[in-house]
Structure formats: C-alpha cells, structure tokens
Amino acid sequence: MTNLQVKTLVLAAGIASSGCGPFPDVRAIAAGDIEPPILLVTEAVGPRSVELIFDEPIVLIEKSTLLAPTIPVSSVLCTETVIRYDFATDLMPGARYLLESIVKDSKHNQMKFITVFYGYNGRAPDLVINEFITQGSKSHPDLVELFVLSDGNLAGLCLFEGTPERFTDRFIFPSVEVKRGDYILVHFKPAGEEDELDETHKRETSGGTDAHPGAWDFWVPAGNGLSGNNGVISLYTSPNGNLIDGVLYSNRTSASDDKYRGFGTKATMQNADRLFSDGGWKAAGELVTPEDAINPDDSTATRSICRSSNSDDTDSRWDWHTVPTRGSTFGSGNNNEVHE
C-alpha cells in the first residue's frame, strides 16, 4: 500500500464516520501526522536476539508477530524506536528467517510489515578481498577471490556487487568451516554447468570454469558478471550487517560527468559513498572520487587485479596492481609482478 493509499483510507474513514450530515472539515486531519512508521534496519544482534529499528517511536501491536520458520519467543522489549526479540533457542547461523508484525506510532498510524533477517554468526572469520577479474571472458569469467585471515564459519556472510542498499548481484554464504590461509573463489558469471557446485565440505567437489581444487568455490545464482570498468565489490557480515572489506574500481575521472562526481551513475556514486562512509575505502578529499579508485584499464580476463602481498591494507588503490598476462593466481599465493 502506498502512502497515498494510506492517506486516502485515513481520510475516507473520517468522512464515513460523520453519518449523513454535512462533510466535516478534513483540513485538520490532513495537516496532522498520517505517515506510518518506517522500518530502517533488521539485524540479529546475538545468538538468540534480533533488533528492529524504526524511524520514530513505535508500539508493537500485541500478538501480531509471526515467524517463519517458527522460533519460540522468550521476551519482547519495545523501547522508543527499537523492538528487541529474544528467543528461547539459538538461531541457526546464516539461516534466513521471516518476521511479520504490526506496529503503530503515537498518532495511531499503523504499519504491517514483513522483514528478513539472518541467524547470528558469532564465529565469522577475518577476510580480505584478495584478487578479482571484471573483464572476464568465456574461458575466464568474472571472479572474486577472498583470503581467510582467521579460522571461522562463513554462514550468512554476504559478498555484493555493490553494497547492501543497492546491488546488482550478491552471494550469501552457507555454513562452511574455513581455516586461516584458505582461499575462497566466488564465480560471478557461471555457465550453468551441472558441476558448478557450492563447496561446503570438500574443496575439490566443484568443477566448472576456473574452479580450483585447493580453494572453496561458490557460484552466484544466475550471476551476470561484474561491471567491467566502474563499480564496488563489498563483503559484509550479513546482508544487513557490518562491512568486512571492499574495493572501489573505476577508469573514469571527476570530469567524466558533472552530475555524479564523475562516476557515471547515481548508483555507482552512492555505492562508493557507502563504502567510504563504512570505512572501507580512503579518499584524498572530503568526498570519494573516481581518482581514488583502482583503475582497471590494464586488466583483462588473464590479467587480474591483485592485492600486493606486501600491502599493509590501507583501503586504497595503492594496495593493488594489475598482474602480467596469464599472471592471475586465483586459489594460490598472489603474484607481485606488475603489468607494464
């Protein structure tokens, strides 16, 4: 239901209640607050807890909450703009849950909503984006490598082409135990072959183009590949979670357009801003620009963009280089040679 429909229903209710007499003056009604609350964030904050944050103080309508799959609720705490649900059992790490309920604000404007959250993962490993190809070919499609810095479980972590607010593709990881030093390959343009399998127990299970027997291979469902010259790749603790790592790449300049700071589209500019505001990328000035990004012009399907092994991870373009032709090292140690 749109805001216009909500307003129409509220006004219609006021008119209908007036009986057969003259129409009431509805200007006072229209001048008041008739906007329903807006749900801003839904996020698991512990093994047995989820919080919902709204844009204004709300009251939860009693007995209006439904959960799928069903989870026994031990308590519900509503304070100002936040509702906290505590459950009697642990959420399954990375599992997808639906929550339906109804809230109202101080003016009795109600909103019925359905939201999604993912089971809390308290053992998420430290990871970095380590190597990627955005100029893929049929024989070497677009690919992103992650490197594992600490032991943990991947359940619920989410890799975006874009950011959580706006993305073209994303991959939500299943529950997989990984060790420090492991490599993870996310294939962004699968060919739809039967042996393109997500590896959850053994690293040699998957076939498919550029699958690596020594890495954990995953395939973006119906993935169309990465933006070739201008984009953001980001990794978060969950689809609505906190940033783990990200990269910004662009072959444009601030002079490429006068509308979106040179990024070409509003979506790319906003994704760059989100990565910058989340602390995932550095800028030379107050705002991030294409000049702050990794320039992908020298990269090809066999010349990947690679993190330098001696990099201090400065969250900037200086951490990266393009390797020589056929110098990509997906699934193994990085190549420090630079394309010239």
Q: What are the segments in which pLDDT stays under 50 over at least 5 consecutive residues?
A: 1-21
The rounded Rg comes to 24 Å
Helix content: under 10%
Say how many strands there are.
Answer: 20
CATH topology of the largest domain, what is it called? Immunoglobulin-like
* Structural category: mainly beta
Strand order of the largest sheet: 16-15-10-9-19-20
Report the biggest beta sheet as strand number plus sense, adding barrel if it closes.
Answer: 6 strands, mixed
State the domain count: 3
Mean pLDDT: 91
The termini sit apart by 57 Å
Q: Helical region count?
A: 3
Order of helices and strands: HHEEEEEEEEEEEEEEEEEEHEE
| CATH class term of the largest domain | Mainly Beta
Shape: globular
| CATH level 4 superfamily of the largest domain | Lamin Tail domain
Strand content: 25-35%
User: In the CATH hierarchy, what is the architecture of the largest domain at level 2?
Assistant: Sandwich
Q: Characteristics of this structure?
A:
340 residues, mainly beta, Immunoglobulin-like, six-stranded mixed β-sheet, four-stranded antiparallel β-sheet, 20 strands, 9% helix, 32% strand, disordered N terminus
